[in-house]
Amino acid sequence: MPAHRMSMRKLKEVLRLKWVCGLSHRQISRATGISVGAVSAYAARASAANLDWASVEPLADDELEAKLRLPADQNTQARRVELDYAFVHRELRRANVTLQLLWEEYVEAHLGERTYRYTQFCQRYRDWAQTLKRSMRQQHRAGEKLFADFAGHTMPILDGRGGVAFRAHVFVGVLGASNYTYACATHSEGTHDWIGGLIGAMEFYGGAPSLLVPDNPRALIARPDRYEPGLGRTAQEFVNHYATAMLPARPRKPRDKAKAEVAVQVVQRWVLARLRNHRFFSLAELNRAIAGLIADINQRPFKKLQGNRREWFERLDQPALRPLPAQRYEIATFVRCVVNIDYHVEVDHHYYSAPHSLVRQPVYARLTRFGVEILHGGKRVAAHARSHLRNKHTTLPEHMPVAHRAHLEWTPGRLLNWGASVGPGAEAIVRHLLTNRPHPEMGYRACLGLLALARKYGRERLEAACQRALVVGSPTRRSVLSILKSGLDRQASPPIELTEWQSPEHENVRGPDYYH
């Protein structure tokens, strides 16, 4: 079955991990779930196009695709004969059997068929062998990995009456090379708590590692697959901001993050156990107590090694960490929307405008604490201040069609001035239309209809028709239109004295004073 074509967002992530994070093709493959061969092919294509990260980052999806000139379907080649992995694995245990020999036998056994080349043969076998259940001691390089997880135990936060307001969760982070440990309390284990804990850890360390190794939480991982996990949009934007990468541990594989498991155990025994008899009334109070005990843990001497976590951090991890960006990451969430026919998108029961050319097209709304951005094709097309007013609209004039924008510019005062420029009869009818409706805006359309009659019949005929409509006691647009169509405005009539039209006294007529 042919594989799905890679999205431009994932391709851009591959290039970012290579050029910005400096990861090897194998590390990029594990972080993105793309084969090493595909990573190498895309990197070579980008290099041939003389691209770098500074030129790729601002590109929209279609612009990047055009520069790389990707074919419409990259999976047209016929399938190759698959390996018998178990047979290869078993034969390698025999004396003097090598992968080179097994590859030659594989090719000879399938003459005339498409087979893998030697490098592909070896790579596919090694990828398969890594899935076998076994344990090995991991070698951690300085500044490479930050392991993170939440402790299994929680801490009660009391309310003013002595009851439990909520139970705080404890985030734990640890650097691989030095075991330098960080911990903080959070409200829950949601997206904001995970990313807030990782930000706090990196600020505590004063730098960012090459890889973040969390568990496989739904809060960060949109597709928690064992082989090809996919980050959520918020987590992806977070790692982009800190020029790092995220390689989540496999589900139900604690050995992938053994450092975090040990650090959690240390925090539970040397921090949470010590605080078991303390009473905390706020999260900030608990975090101050945790910070003091974490400092003590990092100063404790190792039992079998010289020095302590703090000394090892200063000697190993600290010089190798990447510098933090000047601005702290503002946690954002993404909501997929469709631009409605009124060129607005609904976000949290509020309506924000988008360019009218995007009507009925899918977009993403990026939500922060104070702002809302509308994204289309990898580019920001609108930005608004966030509003929490339900069922209200935030509209920018430049997003409106020209006709709608012109309609918006008509106000009651402008309509009255236009009526006065036509004549006293037209002014009287405009005033009546604006003041004898439940809301002035309900008379806008009728007034604009009079404006259209002036363009069709001329101002003189319109004024004459308005005067006749006032005389017969029917100051409406429909009456004026009927008079113009029948030509009654051209018939001679005795001169009349125009006065402001007054509605008859009746209990069902509210009048303008009703709305003061």
Automatic annotation (TrEMBL):
Molecular-function GO term, any one: DNA binding
Pfam families listed in its UniProt record: Mu-transpos_C_2, Sigma70_r4_2
UniProt record similarity statement: Belongs to the transposase IS21/IS408/IS1162 family.
Protein name stated in the entry: Transposase
Integrase catalytic domain location: 138-333
Entry superkingdom: Bacteria
Basic and acidic residues biased stretches: 503-516
PROSITE patterns assigned to the protein according to its UniProt record, in alphabetical order: HTH_IS408, INTEGRASE
Chain segments carrying region Disordered: 495-516
InterPro entries (alphabetical): HTH_IS408/IS1162_type (IPR017895), Integrase_cat-core (IPR001584), IstA-like_C (IPR054353), RNA_pol_sigma70_r4_t2 (IPR013249), RNA_pol_sigma_r3/r4-like (IPR013324), RNaseH-like_sf (IPR012337), RNaseH_sf (IPR036397), WH-like_DNA-bd_sf (IPR036388)
All residue ranges annotated as the HTH IS408-type domain in the record: 11-92
Gene Ontology biological process terms, A to Z: DNA integration; DNA-templated transcription initiation
